[in-house]
Design goal:
globular; 19% strand; five-stranded antiparallel sheet
């Protein structure tokens, strides 16, 4: 009897599932997904927190604190691929590709940890969010410094399987991607891949000591 009841229950559940709209079963929206603006807001609030606790955390503490934040907000793989370009990227074997992605990731985190060191009343403000070509989104924000000056940050994001991720940042209109593209490709062309890795490692060391 119990077996028959169990079978009837299973059959009933299957029928109910078949009667439900397909979207409700298979395509339920991710309630935890963040909008581009929310991604930037979380990044900037984390930077302010790192600044506020900067002296207590020290460089290593800020690095560890910001590590997951950068991983969740930046598309590191695509950024470094775009910087090198298809030609240079295709010249690297799998081990070299993994090495430069990992080294560039370390540099990205180190740069934030080395720059956002102490808090003097700075504030971030989201200015606008608007669509860009190629299914990208721009989030404009402004950092008000303690002396009243301001720095404009334009974040370009695209959608990934893990959510919206930053692929470029413009500081007062200057593209970080363009600067790195010119610098990194010049090193690759002139001195080769080992020299580029060495350059990134030197920048990591500089970020650690220039705090």
């Amino acid at each position: 009897m119990k077996v028959k009841q169990t079978i009837n229950l299973i059959v009933g559940c299957l029928i109910l599932l078949l009667l439900l709209p397909v979207s409700s079963v298979f395509c339920a929206p991710d309630q935890g997904a963040k909008t581009p603006e929310q991604v930037i807001s979380h990044l900037q609030s984390s930077l302010l927190q790192a600044m506020q606790e900067g002296e207590k955390l020290g460089y290593e503490g800020r690095y560890k604190f910001l590590e997951s934040v950068i991983d969740q907000s930046h598309d590191i793989d695509l950024i470094i691929k775009t910087i090198l370009g298809a030609t240079y990227w295709s010249q690297l074997d799998k081990a070299q590709q993994d090495l430069i992605v990992d080294t560039f990731r370390q540099l990205s985190i180190a740069t934030y940890a080395g720059r956002f060191t102490h808090y003097e009343g700075e504030q971030f403000k989201i200015v606008e969010q608007r669509s860009l070509p190629r299914e990208q989104t721009l989030v404009r924000s402004q950092l008000t410094k303690s002396d009243g000056g301001a720095v404009n940050f334009d974040y370009v994001l695209h959608q990934t399987d893990g959510g919206w991720r930053i692929v470029n940042i413009l500081f007062d209109g200057v593209s970080d991607l363009a600067i790195k593209r010119g610098e990194y490709r010049a090193v690759m062309q002139r001195d080769g891949f080992p020299a580029l890795i060495q350059l990134l490692k030197e920048k990591i060391a500089l970020a650690q000591h220039n705090q």
